Amino acid sequence: MSRASLASPYPELNAVLEELLASVQHILADQFIGMYLQGSFAVGDFDCHSDCDFVVVVDRELSEPQCGSLQAMHERIFGLPSEWARHLEGSYFPKDLLRDHALTDADLWYLDNGSRSLVKSRHDNTAVVRWILRERGTVLAGPPASTLIDPVPSTVLRREILQVFTDWGEEILADPQLIGNRFYQSFAVLSYCRMLHDLHTGVIGSKRSGAAWVTRRVDPSWHDLIDRAWAGRPNPAVSSREPANPAELARTLEFIRVVLKQAHDHATALQLAVERAPRP
Which residues span the domain enclosing 17? Predict the structure, then answer.
């Protein structure tokens, strides 16, 4: 029995992961090093509405024939008779690139949630993903991820989180329709809860733990917004096609302003503002 068959409490997902793993190993042969789960299935608080985040570690950059075979394979996996097959998300990481948390300026071959084909993206090439893999990653095949990734200092994590916190917040406040459907409005609330938690603690937690942590530290007037964001997670395929309630969207924008201020106040206390300056 492979480790993929025990990867989650969901037998249907495990069967999809077994098929994905066997296919990847066949295509990559001796270039394959390992396959791991990160994201919610690594940090906890996943449920049947979660997507499944994976990382495949390879010995070197993928060749053109390998990319072609992987593209065809992901197309086939997408068509399997399981909803889990359409909610896989992950990247192919060359081992030398994965090891060093400073090498975040390279594109990876990446499969987005709900997609059937690989594209070049930096989505997973982050210190946060490396930390989750190293500290919490689920091994489906290969050596422990801690042997493949150098330790990621908390200062590096906090700097990256603050950058995402700020950049995404500025984008949303400039164009609220970026989160103009029910799914993304709830997603933004929960993501900002998690990022504020992670910024304070220097470790990566789940959306549920982040929401609980923030609820204990913000004015009670925000509790109902956070509670409804968590309750709104089911049926993302439906909620992503429905517009956000205008009043709920307006409150979400105000919540983002509030937590942005808290984040920058905390960053100043930790001297992260200096750390965010361009490094030589």
Answer: 3-147
